[in-house]
Amino acid sequence: MYFYRIVLSFAGLCVLFSCLALPTSRSEDKQVYVQLKFACVTTVNVTDTGVDIPDAYVCKNGKVTWNANNHIFFVFFKKDCPFSGPGACKEIDNQHPTTSPITDTTTPTVYDYGIVVDGKVFDPHIIGGGGN
Question: Number of H helices and number of E strands within the chain?
């Protein structure tokens, strides 16, 4: 009887160890690539609450025109200017609403700008570069 207990205990341990040795999940290193596409913005409408597109995606060599819609506004960039040419970001207002083409960059870049509409300041963004 003592012999049978040893054999059964040994068999039970073998089953337990064989179950622990089995893989519990199969993980493979897979690389997933996602491509996001956004519509290129060429026109931003000025509204009572700033602009209609708070994050405007501007494509390579694209120009942006702000439609005043009977508002008095001016645009200022807080750090870098996304548009090419000297003084390209200095005179964007209801009298000069169209910019020069955006500067070519290989990676998408967020340009923080402010717009003053009828005396109220708003904080939208231009996102440019990174493709066509």
Answer: 1, 9
Rg over CA atoms, the chain: 31
Q: Where are the domains of the chain?
A: 43-128
Domain topology for 43-128:
Immunoglobulin-like (2.60.40)
Q: How far apart, in whole angstroms, are the C-alpha atoms of residue 93 and residue 17?
A: 76
Contact call for residues 73 and 115 (beta carbons, < 8 A): yes
Cα–Cα dist 26/41, whole Å: 44
Determine the Cα–Cα distance for residues 28 and 81; give it in Å rounded to an integer: 44
**Tens digits of per-residue pLDDT, 45-91?**
999 989 998 888 888 888 899 999 999 999 998 888 888 887 788 88
- What is d(CA 124, CA 113) in angstroms, rounded to the nearest whole number? 6
Contact yes or no for 70/116 (Cβ under 8 A): no
**Cα 25 from Cα 21, distance rounded (Å):** 12
CA gap 75, 99 in Å, rounded: 11
Mean confidence (pLDDT) of the chain = 80
